[in-house]
Each structure stands twice: as structure tokens, then as C-alpha cells.
Amino acid sequence: MKIIEISKVLSNKTRVDILKWLKDPEANFPPHQDIDHFDDGVCVGFIQDKTGLSQSTTSTYLHAMQNADLVIPTRHGKWTYYKRNEPVIQAYIELLKREI
Question: N or C: which end of the chain has fewer CB within 10 A?
């Protein structure tokens, strides 16, 4: 487990907010127009809109989260969707409980 890398990613409020929003995408994002479910996650554009940040900053944040295995990307045509990587998040929480 990449405990230091994950902790660094989680040291940013917006990245933590993104994980919170992805926990319940139906409550935090509008419905997708082309896909009628959130099984593959949320479109980057919706995440960017909710953060209020630029596309490049949002992409940088999501890339850092992906490198730490906190989110899973899925491509649909030219769009990328992100969802939480629940097994990694739970393992991180359990490791913190045991080690700290």
C-alpha cells in the first residue's frame, strides 16, 4: 500500500471533496446524457464544474488520485469517467487504524 502517496493526495481539500462527491454520485452530480447510470463513475466535465477549477487543474488532481489508486478511470469515446476505488480506500483506512 502506498500510504505516504495516498496521504499526500488526501492533504488537498478539493481532492478529498472529489472523493466525498464520488461516494454518492447520484446526489452530487447531474445525470449523464449519454449514459443512464454512474456504474463507470462521473464524467470529468461534471467533476470540473463542481470544483470550480480549471480543466487542467482538475485533470492534474484526478491524475494524482489515479496514481495513488484512489480512483478508477473508464473511457467512453472521448470522455473519461472516474469512480472511487473502494478496496484501496478501505485498505488505507484499515491500515491507518492498525498503524496509527
Answer: C
Given a contact cutoff of 8 angstroms between Cβ atoms, the answer to whether 100 and 35 are in contact is no
pLDDT bracket for residue 31 (50, 70, 90): confident
CA-based nearest residue to 69, from 11, 19, 12, 13 = 19
Cβ count within 10 A of residue 68: 21
Strands (E), 1-100: 42-43, 71-76, 79-84
Residues 6+ apart with CB under 8 A from 93: none
Domains of the chain with bracketed CATH = 3-99 (1.10.10.10)
